[in-house]
From TrEMBL:
Its EC number is 1.17.1.4. Gene3D superfamilies: Aldehyde oxidase/xanthine dehydrogenase, a/b hammerhead, Aldehyde oxidase/xanthine dehydrogenase, molybdopterin binding domain. Residues 23-127 form the Aldehyde oxidase/xanthine dehydrogenase a/b hammerhead domain. SUPFAM superfamilies: CO dehydrogenase molybdoprotein N-domain-like, Molybdenum cofactor-binding domain. InterPro entries: Ald_Oxase/Xan_DH_a/b (IPR000674), Ald_Oxase/Xan_DH_a/b_sf (IPR036856), Ald_Oxase/xanthine_DH-like (IPR016208), AldOxase/xan_DH_MoCoBD1 (IPR008274), AldOxase/xan_DH_MoCoBD2 (IPR046867), AldOxase/xan_DH_Mopterin-bd_sf (IPR037165). This is Xanthine dehydrogenase YagR molybdenum-binding subunit.
Length: 696
């Protein structure tokens, strides 16, 4: 596969949709208001487990503006079983607090909200279990973990190797539940036209939403159209349709009119997914010089009673460092909670916090510099699969990061650098994320006036996908950027995979390149002449991806952090963050840096702030708004920088690129925690790093 360096790719092009966004011309899901549209507001369960026995529907039907009220007894039936998470209002059972148990449809949002607030629901409550704990009697081994990886792996005899290793680290690390809070809350507008259904939705994948809704309502997929040209962030929470989407379609079917549903910030903490809490035991056995002989990583996490989601937290341990003896395990327990889902760098973000914290502990135990320790354990091939790496830039990232950060000459002694009330420390951690490419289709069209239209059902979730695809198309066609228009965000467009897993640009971009190449060939065969009706070409990358060579494809990086900790209050600040990444060819430095810095800032949130606090008595999250669920902003990092090393990798895609949307968050929390240890001598193994954990 030949990787080219055309003129537009690699240039810091401004966003092609930037003006539309700042002028308010970009239309988001809830801003679509079809004629005669009405509003639905859900009613959420106030018990964590039990059964709905009665809903006083008649009492609200006389309220101003109310058109209908739905619950299990009168809602339209779906084509699936009763107890799956998306099977909204199909059962009396309550599986978690906050589950939708009814809905009110009214002429205005305010009328629907007031009627929903007063709708009386009676329950038979049952004892519930919502607390994740190690040793829970309900723990079980899932059949696989996201995205279809084996739950457990074993190589060699790690128990014997640990028993004989001169140096052993054996510690348990914990991460809390975390909730996505995209700028645009989830929203859906549903409109039936006979057996046809149009959905305006805030989604990271129009085809995924189309297919699931079609299945639920017993429709051919072609009868469902999902429109989503702009999405105000997702972080994984919009990868699959949540109950509000189903509710909007049900309500529209019930009343025979278009229905709008907007999920409030409070509701998002119950019905749009979250990152599972984890309990992770990591054991490292090493020679006295720090060379690993054994690695084990055992993960405990939760899922719900109505669905299973298994996060692959131990998966990065399978590829990071060389050790002849190794094992990883994942165990789940079904609790009376909502089903977890993908959240930025699922698996890698919490898993690498544990592994990279343990590596820092090993460096201290062996008296080896933390950067040098990682260099000494660099594998020649992917440790568990034995596959060659298509490219592996971790060593380059560590060395370049150490140079830029001023790491060399670092005093390794913890708790010895103090100026006034502030202790100072520095820490490092590695980053990784898999390189994934999925089948996609695209169409390219030449117009008589010398312009081009490229169509692919990609999702623009704020990352700059529309801009980068324009660059890819323009380079392939040899056309100026202003001559290319890219259409995305509609299931009526050619098939595209999700905007998640850092696979979007690689997947969509490959299809765009192939469609544009086919169009160029067609134009050349016509002598460059374009008839009035235009010239079209299409591409499907399924065969190309099935035929790609067997390589271990991963992006890598290194995170460096400096922290200060107040000796009296334990307040932790992060004056400096540096991320260095090896991600193939960077297609647009402007959008790339934005993604890296955003991920690193989210990693700072993970380290110091983010925690969904569960009330075990009521089975609900207490801090379910942005006043109490704290996230970092640019003001929380005084100096944050993201750079990348040159990396040529001919085994990826026509652009030579690796995904960058997720890797920025991976390792950041560990680098900060390791810096806190260096500053104070206190090792924090359970996130977030709050004041009480440092005042001892």
């Amino acid at each position: 596969m030949t990787v080219t360096r055309p003129c537009h790719l690699g240039a810091p092009i401004e966003r092609v949709d930037g003006l539309a966004k700042v002028r308010g011309e970009a239309r988001y899901a809830y801003e679509n208001t079809p004629d005669s549209a009405v509003y639905a507001v859900p009613v959420q369960a106030t018990v964590a487990r039990g059964e709905v026995t009665r809903v006083d529907v008649d009492a609200v039907l006389s309220s101003p503006g109310v058109i209908a009220a739905m619950w299990y007894a009168n809602a339209p039936r779906l084509a699936t079983g009763e107890d799956a998470e998306p099977a909204v209002l199909q059962s009396r059972r309550v599986a978690y607090r906050g589950q939708y148990v009814a809905a009110v449809i009214a002429a205005t949002y305010e009328q629907a909200r007031e009627a929903a607030r007063t709708l009386h629901v009676e329950y038979t409550a049952e004892p519930h279990d919502v607390g994740l704990r190690d040793g829970h009697p309900g723990l079980y081994r899932p059949g696989s973990v996201n995205p279809g990886l084996p739950a457990d792996t074993l190589k060699g005899d790690p128990e014997a190797a640990l028993a004989s290793a001169p140096v052993v680290v054996d510690e348990t690390y914990r991460t809390p539940a975390e909730h996505h809070n995209p700028m645009e809350p989830h929203a859906t507008v549903a409109l039936w036209d006979g057996d046809g259904l149009t959905i305006y939705d805030s989604t990271q994948g129009t085809y995924a939403t189309r297919d699931q809704i079609a299945s639920l309502f017993g429709l051919p997929p072609g009868n469902v159209r999902v429109v989503s040209p702009y999405v105000g962030g997702g972080f994984g929470s919009k990868l699959s349709p949540h109950p509000h989407v189903v509710l909007a379609v049900l309500a529209a079917k019930q009343v025979g009119r278009p229905v709008k549903v907007a999920v409030t910030r409070h509701e998002m903490f119950a019905v749009t997914g979250y990152r599972t809490p984890t309990i992770q035991r990591v054991r490292l056995g090493a020679e006295r010089d720090g060379r690993l002989v054994a690695i084990t990583h055992d993960v405990v996490e939760q899922t719900s009673t109505v669905g299973e989601f298994a996060e692959q937290a131990a998966a990065p341990t399978r590829l990071m460092y060389a050790a002849p003896h190794r094992s990883t395990t994942h165990r789940l327990v079904r609790l009376d909670v909502p089903t977890p889902t993908w959240m930025r760098a699922p698996g890698e973000a919490p898993g690498m916090f544990a592994l990279e914290s343990a590596m820092d502990e090993l460096a201290a135990a062996c008296g080896v510099d933390p950067v040098e320790l990682r260099l000494r354990n660099e594998p020649a091939t992917e440790p568990e699969s034995g596959l060659p790496f298509s490219s592996r830039g971790l060593v380059a990232c560590l060395r370049e990061g150490a140079r830029r950060f001023g790491w060399h000459g670092r005093d390794p002694r913890p708790g010895t650098r103090r100026s006034g009330r502030l202790y100072t420390g520095t820490g490092v951690a590695s980053s990784t994320y898999p390189v994934i490419r999925r089948r996609s289709r695209a169409e390219a069209r030449a117009e008589p006036g010398g312009t081009f239209t490229v169509r692919v059902a990609a999702a623009e979730i704020g990352t700059g996908a529309r801009t980068v695809l324009t660059q890819i198309a323009a380079d392939t066609l040899g056309a100026p950027l202003t001559a290319v228009r890219v259409e995305v965000g509609d299931s009526a467009l050619p098939l595209a995979p999700l905007a998640g897993g850092s696979m979007g640009t690689a997947s969509w971009g490959t299809a765009v390149v192939r469609a544009c190449e086919a169009l160029k060939e067609e134009l050349e065969a016509r002598g460059g002449e374009v008839p009035p009706q235009g010239v079209e070409a299409a591409a499907d990358t399924g065969e190309e991806i099935r035929a790609q060579e067997k390589y271990a494809r991963h992006a890598f990086g290194a995170q460096f952090a400096e922290v200060t900790v107040d000796a009296d209050t334990g307040e932790t600040r992060v004056p400096r963050l540096l991320g260095v990444f090896a991600v193939g060819h960077v297609l647009n430095p402007r959008t790339a840096r934005s993604q890296f810095v955003g991920g690193m800032t989210m990693g700072l949130s993970m380290a110091l702030m983010e925690e969904s606090v569960l009330d075990t008595e009521f089975g609900d999250y207490l801090n379910n708004d942005l006043a109490q669920y704290h996230i970092a902003s640019c003001a929380d990092v005084r100096d944050i920088d993201a750079v990348w090393v040159d990396e040529e990798d001919p085994h990826l895609n026509p652009m030579g690129s690796k995904g960058i949307g997720e890797i920025g968050i991976v390792g950041t929390a560990a680098a900060i925690a390791n810096a806190v240890y260096h500053a104070t001598g206190v090792r924090v193994r359970d996130l977030p790093i709050t004041l009480d954990k440092l005042i001892r």
